[in-house]
Amino acid sequence: MPTEPASQQRTAARPDLRIPTHVGVIMDGNGRWAQARSKPRTEGHVAGVKALRGLVQSCIDHGVSYLTVFSFSSENWSRPKDEISFIFGLLRRFVASDLEKLHRNNVRVKIIGVRDGLDDSLRRLIADVETTTAMNTGLKLQVAFNYGGKAEITDAVRRIAALVADGRLKAEDITEDTIGRALYTAGMPDPDIIIRTSGERRFSNFLLWQSAYSELVFVDENWPDFDEASFVRVLEEYTGRDRRFGGVEAQNR
Ligand code: IPE
Ligand code: IPE
Ligand code: MG
Q: Exposed, middle or buried, 233 (CB in 10 Å: 0-12/13-18/19+)?
C-alpha cells in the first residue's frame, strides 16, 4: 500500500524544516522524571500532560496535520491500581479542562483504543469531546488510550472475517486497504515519524500496522521535559532522513 507522501509544507519560522503530515509519539518516562526529582510517579503524569499541551501547540504552529499520542497501553493494566486510576482521572481532567481551548483552536480530537471496560461516564466524556470537535478542520489529535496495536489488528481481522462469513466480502478481495480501513486509524495517512522519549527503543505495541514506513526517532529526554526545542530538534533529524519506500531514490523532497 503506498504511504502518503510527506507534506511539503514549510513553516514561516524555519523554512528549512520538512514538516511531517502525521506525527506519532510514545510519551514515555513520566515515572523516571518524577523519580529523579524524588516525587511520586503520579506527578510525572501531571507534568506529562503539560508537555502534551505544549506539543499540541507546536504541531499547530508548525503545520502538522495529524498527531497521535500513546497515553495508556492495553498492557498498562498491569500497573498498580492506584496509578491506573490516577491516569484515568488525568484523562478526564484533560478532556474537561482542555476541550474548550482545543475546540477554539480548531483541533479535532479522537480517542483510539478499546472502549469496552471503560466506565460509562468516561465513555460519555469521550463521545462528547469527539462530537464537539468532529467538524474541526485544524490539527487532528488522536489519543491512543487503552490502545494496543495487536488488539487493533485482531479486532480488524474479526470484523473482516465476519463480512466474509456473511458472504458480503470474498476472501480473495481482501487487500491491504481493506485492513487499513478496518483499523481505528481508518482514513488517516500513516505516521511519517514516530518519536519515543526516555531512551527506550521499542514500540511497546504502538501503531504496528501503520508504522511500516515511519521514520523512528528516539530521544533521551523523559516525556515531561520534551518541549518546543526538543520538537524542532526532531524535525531537523527528520528533515535529514532519506525516505525511499522500497525504491532507490529519496521520495521526500
Ligand atoms: C509514560 O511514562 C506514561 C504511561 C505509560 C502511562 P511511564 O509511566 O511509563 O514512565 P516510566 O517509563 O516508568 O519512567
Ligand atoms: C508505552 O510505555 C505506553 C505509553 C507510553 C502509554 P510503557 O512504559 O508502558 O512501555 P514499556 O513497558 O516500557 O515497554
Ligand atoms: Mg514507561
A: middle
